[in-house]
Amino acid sequence: MKMKVLPAEKRPNRRAMIGIVCVLIFLILITLYIVGASMNELLFEPDFSQKLLPPTMKHPFGTDFLGRDMFARTIKGLSLSMFIGATASGAAAVIALIVGIVAALGKTWLDHFLNWVIDLTMGIPHTVLLILIAIATGRGITGLIIGISLTHWTGIARIIRGEVLQIRSRRYITASRKLGKSRLWVAVRHILPHMIPQFFIGLVLQFPHAIMHESGLTFLGYGMPPETPAIGIILSESMRYLSAGMWWLAFFPGAALAIVVLLIDKLGESLKLALDPASAQE
Amino acid sequence: MLIEAKNIKFGYSKSKPVINGVNFAADEGERVALVGPSGCGKSTLSQILAGCLNPQSGEVLFENKPLPRKGFCPAQLIYQHPEQAINPRLRLNATLREAWTPDAVFLDEIGIAPEWLNRYPAELSGGELQRFCVARALAPQTRFIIADEMSTMLDVITQAQIWELMLRQIERRGLGLLVVTHSTELAARVCSRIVRFESLTRQGRSTAV
Fold first, then answer.
1. Taking the CB of the first residue and of the last residue of chain B, which one, N or C, has fewer CB atoms within 10 A?
2. pLDDT per residue over A160-214, tens digit each?
3. CB–CB of B72 and A193 under 8 A?
4. Domain map (residue ranges) of chain A
5. Is the pLDDT confidence value at A8 over 70?
């Protein structure tokens, strides 16, 4: 059979396809979040007659040592982790973006000061600073979010700032200034568009990091209370049962987390492509 | 005198000046060519005249007042590489609007097709992009245009086209023009006066062609 080649104007625009993929992934993640966040807590009540059951039709992810349904706990945990991950990495990326804009404005002393703050933050061991901030801001979810965002902005800020310093010396920046545009205008219209891809990549890369720190901190006892159905807690609990052959306790929640992280990664990648002017008309 | 550079000294490091004691002046509506060997400081001088670089000593006067540091610069520079002078992440419409909003007649005269406005710089050729740089520099507030090897990287036909389009506008509005070039043919064709860069260090004015 011969392939029919559509004329260029009838072929779907690649950018439109990427847009559809973005919307689809976004919808999946949002649905998952809403289902988890609005879930009735009775669905994973302890039931000691149903302890440590392998996956069945009734409990597709099995049950744990208190007889709680792991499927419901995983969904609930994913939504909680997604919330913490999104908020913390979002806040971190926004801080980094502000640092980038300050660098773009060309106030040297302010830029040097922020660079010093970056060095200071990076110089203190991650976990120690995270624990200190999390305790100081009242533990629980708020403490975790503040702690993670205040320790994770430095990497993205470095990348964005480097990008800005490079862009700032470009000819079109000088040209724009000589066309009478203010520093702020140039920073927002010319330099900001160059920061957006770094912003999204940083956001996406920080997301699994944030979830891991959430679970790590909780495991150490500085995070959320142990009965919270967070993925981190579920995974650290399951470690004790793995050697007894209860694989489903770690496998399903871990796989679900990996799928969510991959989806977010795909979302970031698609956004990057959609924002790239070189591919706009393809 | 429309634009005047007095005793300019500039260097990229403090101890080694690239140009020293340079004087230059051009009148309203005058078309001057600046020639000289590679690396003698022609481009540096044009950037100083356009206010893109600040001289270490000396001053640039525009209509006997110092060249404004802020706001629209009445002396506009057109670079050799248009793809470096246009932000690759903005549509060309936005790049043009940054300077002014030309009407359809002007765009037609300068040789910009309306459909180019909606494209990104990567989707146009060098010659097409250079037209945008020319159009941008020809904003209503511009009084003096500095073309730094503006057409060097273009083929002969495009060169001729761009110069013709630009000269028509410059003539109509009585703008001043400084052409930095290696081509004596171009200098003789376009300009009323040719200045050798070496002569600038001694005296501002030079012999007419």
1. C
2. 888 888 898 899 999 999 998 888 899 889 999 888 888 887 887 788 788 778 8
3. no
4. 14-36+64-279
5. no
Say what the pLDDT of residue A243 is: 87
- 3.40.50.300, 1.10.3720.10, 3.40.50.170, 2.60.40.1180: CATH of A14-36+64-279: 1.10.3720.10
Q: pTM here?
A: 0.76
CATH topology of domain B3-200: Rossmann fold (3.40.50)
For residue B180, name the pLDDT band (cuts at 50, 70, 90).
Answer: very high
Mean of all residue pLDDT scores within chain B: 87
- Tell me the shortest Cα–Cα distance from B84 to chain A, in angstroms: 6
Q: Three-class SS string for chain B? A: CCEEEEEEEECCECCECCEEEEEEEECCCCEEEEECCCCCCHHHHHHHHCCCCCCCEEEEEECCEECCCCCECCEEEECCCHHHHCCCCCCHHHHHHHHCCCCHHHHHHHCCCHHHHHCCHHHCCHHHHHHHHHHHHCCCCCCEEEEECCCCCCCHHHHHHHHHHHHHHHHHHCCEEEEECCCHHHHHHHCCEEEEHHHHCCCCCCCEC
What does the pLDDT read at residue A2? 54
Contact B84 A172 (CB under 8 A): yes
Residues of chain A positioned with their CB less than 8 A from the CB of B86: 172
Choose among A176, A180, A193: nearest Cβ to B89: A193
